[in-house]
Write a structure and sequence with these properties.
single chain; 348 residues; alpha/beta; Rossmann fold; 2 domains; six-stranded parallel sheet; 12 helices; 12 strands; 36% helix; globular
Length: 348
């Protein structure tokens, strides 16, 4: 009996969120033949055409995409590449991690050519308070969402956390820096208004920020903030080194976790490195960690500042919590568990 074949569409470059690689590895361990599709590939002419779009915007004041509707358009290009790959591989399953989207037309065309293909969508982006999830779910045979928000029980959407321990990457390192060389506080993530609001009170501390957007807009004139920004991106082993060599690792959601959802991948990644995680509070955290024991939480910018100062001044207590968080991470679900949930849903 031949192994089942799966195509996974997500981000598969070295400077990408490693979720796709983690799932590809987990499916391989389950005996699948895995083919990956990098859903952010761009047409070879796009860098040139993008500059033309910018020039038109400067002179017209309007956002224009001269590639719209042409074969040079990135969406058209990516969909053509995906369809060619499906025709070549002839998989049993197409897993689209959202991520980048694909149009109804291209998914229907793929299904028409491959009627036995199971198509799966999995929303791993920020929670939405509109009907986008429900509309997107109708394009697929099966649909999952990492949040318990934005859909109803009769929508055909199944809750599936994207949280998983990825021990191939996120781990404790045997060699760490001397304590006097450790970074006090680090934050990794793109700039969003809510994040700026919370992090602006910490700029007087030994804070390191890694992520896109912090040097743009009005932040480009914020000297206190700019001095904390180290790089626009940090991935892979460099990120593991940073987590291992930081006294406090912050997690600040783009959205309010009290109103929507409190899940993102840092919740597992940071404790898996043996680091102290200070994250915004949400009820969902209680499914995995005990705040104040295995991780620590905050609910306001003021509480964030107070707890950062407290735990910097109480290293023994901080290190105990970090150690308990690491020990708990050894018991948490891995991506093989998430893959098994997907398989069982299809089999049902």
């Amino acid at each position: 009996m031949r192994a089942k074949k799966i195509v996974i569409s997500y981000f598969f470059h070295d400077d990408s969120i490693p979720l796709g690689f983690a799932l590809a590895s987990a499916f391989k361990k389950k005996g699948f033949q895995v083919t990956t599709f990098h859903s952010q590939d761009e047409h070879a002419f796009w860098p040139f055409l993008k500059h033309i779009n910018k020039i038109i915007k400067v002179f017209s004041g309007k956002i224009v995409d001269i590639t719209q509707g042409t074969r040079f358009n990135n969406q058209v290009y990516r969909e053509g590449q995906l369809e060619r790959l499906i025709n070549e591989v002839d998989p049993d399953i197409l897993l689209v991690i959202r991520g980048n989207s694909f149009s109804k037309d291209i998914l229907q065309s793929i299904k028409h050519t491959h009627p036995k293909l199971d198509t799966i969508g999995w929303w791993v982006k920020d929670p939405r308070n509109d009907n986008q999830l429900v509309i997107d779910a109708k394009l697929y045979d099966y649909y999952f969402c990492m949040h318990q928000y934005g859909y109803t029980t009769n929508s055909g959407i199944e809750y599936l956390p994207a949280l998983g321990v990825y021990s191939d990457l996120y781990r404790r390192l045997h060699q760490r820096l001397e304590k006097n060389l450790l970074t006090d506080v680090c934050f990794v993530g793109g700039q969003f208004p809510r994040r700026r609001e919370y992090i602006s009170s910490l700029t007087d501390l030994d804070l390191e920020i890694y992520g896109p957007g912090w040097r743009k807009g009005k932040d480009a004139f914020n000297r206190d903030l700019l001095q904390c920004v180290k790089k626009s991106f940090i991935w892979g082993e460099d990120l593991v080194q940073l987590y291992n060599n930081s006294k406090i690792v912050l997690n600040i959601s783009q959205w309010s976790p009290n109103e929507m959802s409190g899940q993102n991948l840092r919740l597992f990644d940071v404790p898996s490195c043996g680091a102290f995680l200070l994250t915004d509070y949400s009820e969902e955290l209680l499914d995995f960690f005990e705040p104040g024991v295995e991780i620590e939480t905050f609910k306001s910018p003021e509480e964030l500042l107070d707890k950062v100062k407290y735990y910097l001044n109480h290293p023994v207590e901080r290190e105990k919590i970090a150690r308990r968080g690491y020990e708990k991470s050894l018991e948490l679900p891995g991506y093989s568990d998430r893959v098994q949930q997907i398989i069982e849903s299809i089999e049902r």
